[in-house]
Design brief:
With 220 residues, the protein is an alpha+beta fold. It is built from 9 helices and 4 strands; from the N terminus they run ββααββααααααα.
Amino acid sequence: MNLVTSSAITMSSREIAELVGATHDNVMKTVRGLIGKGVVFGNETPYKNKQNRQTYMEFILDFRNTMVVVSGYSAELRAKIIDRWQELEKVVAENASAIESRKVARLESSDLTDAIKRDRQTAGKELRPHNFSNEFDMINRIALGMTAKAFRAHHELDKAEPIRDHLSNLEIKCVEHLQRLNTSLIEINMPYESRKQHLNKVYLLRHKRGLIAEVLRIEQ
């Protein structure tokens, strides 16, 4: 009922109606009247009702036009609109943060790969593909509860699609943190099983509680 992107926030006339306890027809009438007076700007946009799949019309409004539309309502109802708008702004900020974290996480992957290469070369051991997959699978199992392959299957993603584009902000931060830490532990020659135990402890101390709370909040 609302549109949230990294660059814009809008609110539909349907959501306005829901928040102020009015019928959508009445809100549409108000918007059309204000457009006729030249004080609100917007176009009617089609949408499909999920129940009967019929096409109806709505307005998609930016902050300025939304505030003009609800200016005639009570202070309590206007407060509901403002509170909802602030929630949408928070989502935009969190999405922007997640995008930045994904970029960093990809760079961290490169550092981890380099550390694995150096570790194998220093030990005079042959470098094989599973040396990389073992490390990344370990981190994903700790942070996400499953490997990247299992995550893609669970979420019906293409085999080549990066899973980080489908993680929450807290999951991104967890993966990012464990990648950095694992890179450092490899560089001091800590054995695999010892690193695994250490990363598990860090996950339990620093990340598990927040991730569980996030899941519960989403499921509410």
